[in-house]
C-alpha cells in the first residue's frame, strides 16, 4: 500500500465547478493516489451561484455504500479524507466508518477538514460542533481547520500567535497528531498566516508560512489545501515544513492562474479554480514560498 496509496474521500460534489470532491480528486490522482469518492451532497454547483439544486446523502445511503464496499472486500484504504458534511447524523456515521476502516488497516491516516464556517459565521447546523469536538478529534490523525474553526473546536479565542499555538496544543491533547491551521488573520494586509504542528510522542515540530493575499474571493481552496497536504505528508514521509511549502506553493499557482484567466470578471463562474490548466503545477510544484520552523 505504501507504493499504491488509496484514499476514500467523503465530502461534497458539484456537477459543474471545483469544490469538495471535484477540488480534491484530480490533484490526488495526479500525485499518484487512487481515489474513491463518496459525495455527502450532490449539487449542480457551489452555493455562490444564484441557484443551487441537488441531493443530500443520508446516513442510510452512507451505510449502504460502506456496507457494499465491505462485503466486496473493497474497504482497505491508506487514507480517509473528509470535508463538508451537513448533518449531525451523517457525521456520527462517518465516525463509525473511521473506526471500521482503522480496524481493517490500523495504519490508515484520517485527514479531517472540519468544514463548519469562516469569518465568524457557522454555515452548518450547530449540533455538528459537539460531534467534531468529542468524536471526530480523537479519531483524526491530521486536521486542517481555519482560524474560526479552531476557535470553535478549542474554545480558545485567537487574538495573537501565542493564542493560536495554545489552541493547537489543545487539539493535540484531543488526539490529533498533525494540526495545520490553514489560514488565520494573524498576518497583515499583504498575507495570511498558516500554522502547522506535528506531535509524535514528546517531540513537537512546528512551522509557520505566510500566504500572500490575492485581490479576489475563491471557493474550494480549503478542499484543495486538505487534499494537497494529505498527498505531500505521505510523499515526504511526514516532513511538515516541506509538505506545507509544496501545498501552499501549489495553491498559489492555481489561484494566480484562476485570477489571470478571469480577466477582472469576479462572477462565480469566472472564479472557478483552474485545476485542469494547473496540471504541471500540481504534479511538480515550484516552491515560491518558504515555511519557517518554530523553535
Could you name the CATH topology?
UDP-N-acetylmuramoyl-L-alanine:D-glutamate ligase
Mean pLDDT: 96
Total count of helical runs of at least 4 residues: 9
Strand count, sense and barrel status of the largest sheet are:
10 strands, mixed
Shape designation = globular
Our measurement of the CA-to-CA distance between the termini, rounded to an integer number of angstroms, reads 34 Å
CATH architecture: 3-Layer(aba) Sandwich
Strand order of the largest sheet: 3-2-1-4-5-8-9-10-11-12
- What kind of assembly state do the chains in view correspond to? single chain
Number of structural units classed as domains: 1
Number of strands: 12
Low-confidence stretches: none
Portion of residues in beta strands equals 15-25%
CATH homologous superfamily name? Ribokinase
CATH class: Alpha Beta
Short account of what is shown:
The protein is of the alpha/beta class. The protein is built from 9 helices and 12 strands.
Amino acid at each position: 500500500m505504501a507504493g499504491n496509496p488509496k484514499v476514500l474521500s467523503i465530502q461534497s460534489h458539484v456537477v459543474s465547478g471545483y469544490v469538495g470532491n471535484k477540488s480534491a480528486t484530480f490533484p490526488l490522482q495526479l500525485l499518484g493516489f487512487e481515489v474513491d469518492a463518496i459525495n455527502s451532497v450532490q449539487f449542480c454547483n457551489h452555493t455562490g451561484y444564484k441557484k443551487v439544486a441537488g441531493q443530500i446523502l443520508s446516513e442510510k445511503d452512507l451505510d449502504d455504500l460502506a456496507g457494499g464496499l465491505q462485503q466486496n472486500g473493497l474497504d482497505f484504504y491508506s487514507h480517509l479524507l473528509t470535508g463538508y458534511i451537513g448533518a449531525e447524523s451523517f457525521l456520527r456515521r462517518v465516525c463509525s466508518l473511521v473506526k471500521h476502516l482503522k480496524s481493517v488497516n490500523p495504519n490508515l491516516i484520517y485527514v479531517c477538514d472540519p468544514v463548519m464556517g469562516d469569518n465568524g459565521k457557522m454555515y452548518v447546523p450547530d449540533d455538528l460542533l459537539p460531534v467534531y469536538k468529542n468524536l471526530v478529534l480523537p479519531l483524526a490523525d491530521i486536521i486542517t481547520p481555519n482560524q474560526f474553526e479552531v476557535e470553535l473546536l478549542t474554545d480558545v479565542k485567537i487574538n495573537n500567535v501565542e493564542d493560536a499555538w495554545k489552541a493547537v496544543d489543545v487539539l493535540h491533547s484531543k488526539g490529533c497528531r498533525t494540526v495545520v491551521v490553514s489560514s488565520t488573520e494573524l498576518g497583515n494586509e499583504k498575507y495570511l498566516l498558516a500554522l502547522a504542528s506535528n506531535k509524535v510522542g514528546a517531540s513537537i515540530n512546528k512551522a509557520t508560512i505566510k500566504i500572500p493575499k490575492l485581490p479576489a474571493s475563491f471557493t474550494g481552496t480549503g478542499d484543495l489545501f486538505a487534499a494537497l497536504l494529505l498527498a505531500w505528508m505521505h510523499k515526504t514521509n511526514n516532513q511538515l515544513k516541506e509538505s506545507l511549502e509544496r501545498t501552499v506553493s501549489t495553491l498559489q499557482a492555481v489561484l494566480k492562474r484562476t485570477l489571470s484567466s478571469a480577466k477582472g470578471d469576479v462572477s462565480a463562474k469566472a472564479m472557478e479554480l483552474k485545476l485542469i490548466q494547473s496540471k504541471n503545477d500540481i504534479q511538480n510544484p515550484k516552491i515560491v514560498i518558504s515555511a519557517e520552523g518554530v523553535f
